[in-house]
Amino acid sequence: MNRLLLTKIRALGDTVLLTAHLDEVRRRFPEALITVIVPERWKAVLADHPAVHEVWGVDLKKIRSAAGFFSLWQRIRKMRFDAAICLHASPTIAWLIRLAGISRRAIHFHGHQDQNRFSTVEITGKGQLFPAIVRDALCFEALFGQWPRDLVPRVVVNSKTLSRALPEKGPVLAICPAASRPTKSWTIEGFAEVAQRWLETRNGSIVLIGSDLERTTLNSVYGALVKKLPGLQGRVSIAADLTLEELMALLAKVDLFLGNDSGPKHLAVALGRPTITLFGPEDPFEWHPYSRKSHPYLFVPNLPCRKSQTLGLPAWCGVETCVEEKHQCMTGISSDEVWLHVEKLVPR
Prior knowledge:
By secondary structure, the chain is α/β, with parallel strands linked by helices. The protein has 14 helices and 11 strands.
């Protein structure tokens, strides 16, 4: 194996999960040139990984155009890759890999009923639910034989980036209170109560992290906390305008991450930080493939309001905003339950 192409063009968390397999690829093929294609906005996740030779950032919307598709096809074809593994494939990426003339291809479509079009090998387990890292491992296994199931993601941050991390008084609790949709977010009051206990019991600080579009949620948690402890707001900061590199540097230095199921949670895990995750409408089985000792989660099981389900798979809920059921999947998680995990992960 001289040249290997890996692709995963999805969300931040998916990009982080891909890193779980990179060290094993490098161990198997120590001399291979490994190229990875990910969304342009997430390139920093892989930029300093020692197993990767080159990272190509792409915009899926652009490569769906004739000009963008042809440009990327030319670039891939020119490299003459020996094999390609296409994780969480889209039709566009699958066609690109096929037309580029790569002879050995493991192409996996996430949909349980979707065919793995243009794959030259059979990827086992189609139609079954696996933890995300195991599902990806099956793709590597289809090409390269038995593949480890117990891998964990690893993100590398260079020393220059680390030096730019926000100066916080330790110990530092990072809270990420927003999510991809409102129903995946725990309560503002819950986050504020845990933050209050952290400040009262530890001589540390809180950093509220999120994107600029999530600033309203960050401000709400900040406001609720200041009402509880008006004299301690100087130990609470909002980080809503960080670059991905700055976010990685910050998370690499925190003592604990608390948040919903989101990309920053996966980043914190990959940076070796302990985490606590709040799951609501979706079962954690697939998207939390981590040790519960270092990365516990809270989840209210067996709620009848999780009505979306494919036969044989866990039930879930896809609504954006929950009114009828009063968001019981998240309101059913108390700050006392969360705090028990805080005490275990960061003892006084």
